[in-house]
Design goal:
Layout: E1 15-17, E2 20-22, E3 39-42, H1 59-67, H2 75-89, E4 97-100, H3 119-122
Antiparallel strand pairs: 1-2, 3-4
Helix pairs in contact: 1-2
Amino acid sequence: ILDACRNNPFPRKDYWLRDQLITASGTGLAEVKSSQNALIAFATGPDAIAYDGTGNASPFSSAFSRRALAPNQEIRAVMAAVRRDVVAATKGKQVPWENSSLIDEVVLMHRANKPALPPVLERVVP
């Protein structure tokens, strides 16, 4: 999971770096391919810029940290929820993107039962 889709600091035209010609690129990160049974998630799509947001974390980081802690959620469902949250928070200006070749289910917070609570909390937590 990567939240680093920022402006490219390099010029927008081809340039030389030592003896190698570097071809200019657009904004944001370029597309990255994954190997089998992998998921690479980005804060926004290729050649796009992720927004910092107004809080302590970006819209993507906020949504991911909140959604990833939900128990028994498969990662593709988590990422779809993150995408919806970010699109809503940025009014459609940022759309998280992923490159997935997953063939297995991946659950980040597997929980078979409800966690045990201290007796004082059992009365107030459903």
